[in-house]
């Protein structure tokens, strides 16, 4: 094959975006998918995610925090990698970090590196594809800014080390979590260029005559394109007004640029607060490894051979089919008994209600009704619990009057939206009203006006 397509996408939760992700994987139009922020643990992965037809999967999970961060690379069988690793540190390098720093930087499952080989004329070349989800700098936690800058330094040290070998090229794809230029941000402030993360990124893209340098492929091919964003605040409906940032990149070393055909944003693909970015390459013949790297999901012991998932219980004992059939029958019988009991209870309630309307005001005792229906003590306890629960619901409905009625915003004269302060501080948890329109440029009359009002 002389062409290659790679897609990178921050899915903001692989399980929540699973339907869209599987649709993309089943299209077979793309050779390699790099997904970030999977937010999934190994024990939450089923066979539909682990075994995608005609692809092999390589996951990286956080080691100390579940449901957080994480990346996965899917490679088609045509471009099966020769190696895969989830660490920047592979041969005991320190890159000027102490051991505890390296351990922390590698603990959040933010990296998957696959090694590919391709032919350039008659010469074999190495291509290291780095799928990366860079950390976010939390304004309320200065330590995370230090963590992010150290992560950048570690990544740069690794790729520069790899480029010391002849016939080696680098592709970095993923969420870099920093917009590079003012053109890449919907509303850059006065201190935009002072960000230390932005300064590092601009230095990373600085052309050098004495050493290999790195290229922001999209901006190199589309230097004047404005409003080319890849991430939006979906809570504020900012995607509707395209009020976002460009923080998802395809990056290569300068020597690899001759193989690049185009880089496009797939803004019509929904399912996340990011959109996918597609990199198209030409005149590149990728080789296929004869075997799978050890990190492939095909070697995970919790799954059986092929594409059928094997449950962990199958490793412990063999379940007799007669036992399973008997258990299913007993379960169905219990469900029927429960349904009959509830029907009896509803009948009792109805008959109780009618006795109070009789002219002679004769009451039917609880014990009498129990005898008629053949209730057991456990069934009676269940009925009393349901009655108490229903009474509580009615009482709460009488007490609560629901959320306050939203006032009209001053800019559009439409009902505003109720929100809650989540930022740490004296107002955390307090509610307020804002314009319900999507956030957007200040001079756009269709976007959010400046209405704000505290809820009482």
UniProtKB/TrEMBL annotation:
Known cofactor(s): Mg(2+); Mn(2+)
Pfam families membership: Exo_endo_phos (PF03372), Zn_ribbon_GRF (PF06839)
Superkingdom in the source lineage: Eukaryota
Key words of the record: DNA damage, DNA repair, Endonuclease, Hydrolase, Magnesium, Manganese, Metal-binding, Nuclease, Nucleus, Zinc, Zinc-finger
Protein residues bound to Mg(2+): 10, 37, 175, 177, 273-274
Cofactor note: Probably binds two magnesium or manganese ions per subunit.
Domain (GRF-type) ranges: 409-456
Marked site (Interaction with DNA substrate) residue numbers: 274
Family that this chain belongs to: Belongs to the DNA repair enzymes AP/ExoA family.
Protein name per the record: DNA-(apurinic or apyrimidinic site) endonuclease
Originating species: Dinothrombium tinctorium
């Amino acid at each position: 094959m002389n062409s290659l397509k790679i897609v990178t996408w921050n899915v903001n939760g692989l399980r929540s975006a699973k339907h869209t992700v599987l649709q993309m994987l089943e299209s077979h139009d793309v050779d390699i998918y790099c997904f970030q922020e999977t937010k999934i643990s190994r024990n939450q992965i089923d066979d539909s995610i682990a075994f995608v037809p005609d692809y092999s999967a390589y996951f990286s999970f956080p080691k100390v925090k579940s449901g957080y961060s994480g990346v996965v690379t899917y490679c088609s069988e045509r471009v099966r990698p020769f190696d895969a690793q989830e660490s920047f540190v592979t041969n005991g390098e320190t890159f000027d970090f102490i051991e505890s720093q390296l351990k922390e930087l590698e603990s959040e499952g933010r990296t998957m590196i696959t090694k590919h080989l391709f032919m350039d004329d008659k010469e074999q070349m190495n291509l290291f594809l780095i799928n990366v989800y860079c950390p976010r700098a939390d304004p309320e936690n200065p330590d995370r800014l230090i963590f992010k800058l150290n992560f950048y330094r570690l990544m740069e040290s690794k790729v520069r080390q790899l480029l010391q070998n002849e016939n080696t090229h680098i592709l970095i794809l993923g969420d870099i979590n920093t917009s590079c230029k003012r053109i890449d941000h919907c509303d850059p402030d006065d201190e935009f260029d002072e960000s230390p993360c932005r300064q590092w990124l601009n230095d990373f893209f600085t052309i050098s005559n004495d050493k290999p340098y790195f290229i922001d492929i999209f901006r190199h091919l589309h230097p004047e394109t404005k409003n080319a964003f890849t991430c939006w605040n979906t809570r504020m409906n900012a995607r509707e007004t395209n009020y976002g940032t460009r923080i998802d990149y395809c990056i290569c070393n300068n020597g690899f640029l001759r193989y690049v055909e185009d880089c496009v944003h797939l803004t019509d693909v929904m399912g996340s607060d990011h959109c996918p970015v597609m990199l198209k390459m030409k005149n590149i013949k990728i080789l296929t490894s004869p075997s799978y790297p050890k990190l492939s999901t095909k070697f995970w012991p919790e799954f059986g051979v092929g594409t059928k998932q094997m449950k962990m219980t199958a490793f412990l004992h063999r379940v007799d089919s007669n036992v399973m059939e008997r258990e299913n029958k007993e379960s169905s019988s219990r469900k029927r008994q429960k349904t009959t009991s509830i029907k009896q209870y509803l009948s009792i309630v109805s008959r109780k209600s009618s006795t109070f309307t009789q002219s002679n005001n004769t009451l039917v005792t609880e014990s009498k009704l129990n005898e008629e229906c053949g209730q057991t003590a456990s069934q009676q306890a269940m009925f009393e619990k349901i009655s108490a629960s229903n009474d509580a619901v009615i009482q709460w409905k009488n007490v609560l009057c629901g959320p306050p009625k939203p006032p009209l915003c001053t800019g559009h004269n439409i009902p505003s939206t109720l929100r809650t302060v989540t930022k740490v501080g004296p107002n955390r948890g307090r509610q307020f009203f804002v314009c319900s329109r999507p956030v957007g440029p200040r001079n756009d009359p269709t976007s959010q006006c400046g209405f704000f009002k505290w809820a009482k």
